Each structure stands twice: as structure tokens, then as C-alpha cells.
């Protein structure tokens, strides 16, 4: 059950708030961790309820007391992961210095946990497209939430009202795809190295190119 142990700290905060007996909460947490381990490594379609139960070290009957089926396991795990990462993003955007400087910090708040466990990229970026209508709808909600945070950039440029209505959702979708690709092709090192370019990509509609490069840290890279 190495997968469950590896991500336990990520799940603990949300699980401790659940109105359940300690033993039940522990079982639920192990099932969520096992869902990440199995789906993150094999994909949603190739994962079975039996495999999730085995990874969690519980019987299928025990799993069924917590979740109706594989889709329910996936959705509950996705919710915990998105809330955990979202907490880091919100904290980054609220720091002193404000937008747009906080964009780089927010990008790092996304990339750091994914670099620590690249399975998160597959689980949260690629698999929602394959895990059924409810997962896809929840993923679209996540894109929308991130897009609203990015849309604040319109307040920092004179041409904000001229930007296309769907700009932010398109950019967020592209950023998610870039993160998933980096996780698949290069792992942790590739993900951490993505921060400057991704920051630059997200800032360019709102600030001039030179300022976007400076805030993204690309000027320092060029000068070396």
C-alpha cells in the first residue's frame, strides 16, 4: 500500500473534518488514497473497484459502505485533491504584492504538489475526461474557478474589456494540458521547470511582454 502512504498528508486535512467515527474516517482516507494510486498509475478505465479495495486494504463490502461504485470513489478523491490544491492557490493570490506578482506564486502552488506526486496531474487533468459525465462536469467547474481567478488580470490593463470572453477558460485549459504533458514526459524536474514559461503564458494578455518576462523570472534565465 505504498501509494496510500505516499499521499496521506495531502488527504488528512479534509478527512479530519468529516463527521465520521475515527475508524470509518481512516477507512475512507485509505480508499481515497488507493483511488489516486490506482487511477493515477493505470487510468480510470483500467482500474476496478476490486483493485481499489485491495490497494486500500479493505474488503469490497467495506468499500461499498463508503462509496457506491468506482465513479463515486473517483469523484470524492478528485474533490479532496482539488480543494487541497485550491487552498494553496487562494493563499498565494492573497499574499501581499497582489496580482500580477501573485500569479507566479499561484503557479508554483499548483506545480509543487504535482511535482511531489506526478500522478496528481494524470488524475486531475487527463482522467476527468474519461471518468464519466459527472467527472467531466466537475472538471469544467474547476476550470471555471481557475478562470475567474485569472480574469482579475483584466482589472490591471487598459484593454481588459477588449479581451475575448472565453480567454481565461481557454488559457486555463491549455495550462492544465501543459502540466499533464510535462508530468507524463519529464516528471518532477520537468514540472518545476515549467513555472516560468507557464507564468509568462498566463500574464501576457494583461501586461506587456517585458513585464510578463520579468514577473515570470525569464529575464534571469536569459542573462545566465
Task: List the keywords.
2 domains, elongated, 12 helices, mainly alpha, 75% helix, disordered N terminus, 224 residues, Tetracycline Repressor, domain 2
Total strands: 0
Note the overall shape.
elongated
Nearest-integer average pLDDT: 83
Share of helical residues? over 70%
What does this protein structure show overall?
This protein is about 75% helix and about 0% strand. The protein has twelve helices and no strands. Helix 1 crosses helix 5, helix 2 packs across helix 5 and helix 8 packs across helix 9. The longest helix is centred in the last third of the chain and has 27 residues.
Q: How would you sum up this structure in a few lines?
A:
75% of the residues lie in helices and 0% in strands. The chain is mainly alpha-helical and 224 residues long.
Amino acid at each position: 500500500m505504498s501509494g496510500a502512504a505516499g499521499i496521506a498528508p495531502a488527504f488528512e486535512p479534509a478527512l479530519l473534518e468529516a463527521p465520521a467515527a475515527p475508524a470509518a474516517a481512516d477507512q475512507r482516507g485509505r480508499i481515497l488514497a488507493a483511488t489516486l494510486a490506482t487511477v493515477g498509475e493505470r487510468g480510470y478505465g483500467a482500474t476496478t473497484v476490486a483493485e481499489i479495495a485491495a490497494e486500500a486494504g479493505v474488503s469490497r463490502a467495506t468499500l461499498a459502505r463508503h462509496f457506491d461504485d468506482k465513479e463515486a470513489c473517483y469523484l470524492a478523491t478528485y474533490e479532496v485533491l482539488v480543494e487541497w490544491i485550491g487552498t494553496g492557490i487562494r493563499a498565494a493570490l492573497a499574499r501581499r504584492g497582489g496580482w500580477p506578482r501573485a500569479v507566479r506564486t499561484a503557479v508554483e502552488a499548483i506545480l509543487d504538489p504535482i511535482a511531489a506526486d506526478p500522478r496528481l496531474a494524470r488524475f486531475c487533468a487527463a482522467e476527468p475526461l474519461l471518468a464519466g459525465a459527472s467527472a467531466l462536469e466537475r472538471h469544467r467547474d474547476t476550470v471555471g474557478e481557475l478562470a475567474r481567478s485569472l480574469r482579475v488580470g483584466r482589472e490591471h490593463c487598459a484593454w481588459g474589456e477588449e479581451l475575448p470572453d472565453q480567454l481565461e477558460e481557454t488559457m486555463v485549459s491549455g495550462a492544465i494540458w501543459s502540466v499533464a504533458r510535462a508530468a507524463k514526459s519529464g516528471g518532477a524536474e520537468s514540472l518545476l521547470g515549467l513555472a516560468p514559461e507557464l507564468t509568462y503564458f498566463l500574464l501576457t494578455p494583461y501586461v506587456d511582454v517585458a513585464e510578463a518576462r520579468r514577473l515570470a523570472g525569464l529575464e534571469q534565465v536569459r542573462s545566465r
